[in-house]
Give the backbone structure.
Amino acid sequence: MISYQLVNKSEIQQYKEEIDRLNGTILHAAEFISEIGKGNLEADYKSDSENDILRTALLSMKSQLKKIADQEKNHAWANKGLALFAELMRIQYVNLNDFSYAIISNLVKYLNANQGGVFILTGENEGKPLLEMYASYAYDKKKYNQKIIRPGQGLLGQAFLEKESIYITEIPDQYTTVTSGLGASTPSVVMIVPLKYNDVVVGILEVASFNKFEKFELEFAEKIAQSMGAAVTSIKINERTEKLLYETREQTESLKSQEEEMRQNLEELQSTQEKSESMESDLRMNKEMLEQKLLEHDLENKRMLEYMDNYKQILIEVLDELPLKIFIKDDQGKFILVNTAVANAHNISIEKLLNTSDFDYFSEEQASNYRKQELDIIKDGKPVVFYHEETVNGKKKVLKTMKRPIYLKHLDQSGGLLGIQTDITEIKRLEELLKEKETKLEGYQKK
């Protein structure tokens, strides 16, 4: 026999209401999940109960997805920026001012900041290091007129000594002012990042903004500063090398001119002596005096040549400190100045490498191609950059070679050539790695 239990109308109504509530909850959950699936991570979940377990789980899911999306967005932003500034730093800049302005102007824009400045270390060789402003962007020149900072002076000097970044959200009074169409205002935050190369600070990067910087933006700025440190060091070395070469040429020309002048005076004196026998005694005395002066000049010339040899040795020692291959050829294509890196590449000493050419080390065809290439560069009068690969000790390396025409004044030659070769294998590897990550990111976003 089947037993039945009577249910009153009120209980039936309660069951019905509970079923309707569950159906409503399921419907709201389905709508919420549909919006999330469409990429709307700002969708709101409606529920009649704050203790709804399903509501809690779905909102937690939304929070996690939004966190992942934000991380991917920040990662993509940083990768895009690194690629942009890597391209900027590959440009051959004439001087540090142009390089500094190109970087700081683009960095301020990319960070959506308001102003920025680049300070480069100067005077370190004279024992009086100073941080001098080389470029600024959006600075109010009437308010911000301090362009030289000493180590330890202010926040910039402190960051220089401590070799650490400084991020402040409470700006000191009159620290700096941003001027816009709405008037002058004090920024909300300032980041100060040292430019380091081999753990040595070579400059300071400063960026101010009305909006607070996120952690990923600070990390991005530090990566840019690290790349700037290497670039600043390279440009300073190139500028110093150019200066040393110029001074050497000037001193050689001066000595050559003085010697020629003394030779001409001696010849004139000898000619006068032949024409006037009556003045022989005076002329003899003058001749002896002139010969004495010539002897003294020869001694001075010898001293200057020794000084130039020492100067040249210092120049070679400076070039040997560079992680680059540097050489200078005359108008015949022969090496007249090389550093140790070039000599090591040819597996001979510097002394044996001088006054030789590519025809002494390569096949006739290969050497002829190199010579034709260099003659074209000299004819055009413009520097040219080449990229090529070679295998050294079983390892593939990517090399960047810059060749440019140079006037050898002390040899009275206009067909000289300066060559600088850099190993960019690591840079290429990082670029390929960055491209691979961007490809993976694009694949993930399409999914």
Remarks:
- Residues 215-275 form the longest helix (61 residues).
- Confidence is low (pLDDT under 50) at residues 140-145, 179-183.
- Residues 79-238 form a domain with the Beta-Lactamase fold (CATH 3.30.450.40).
- Residues 12 and 386 are 87 Å apart (CA to CA).
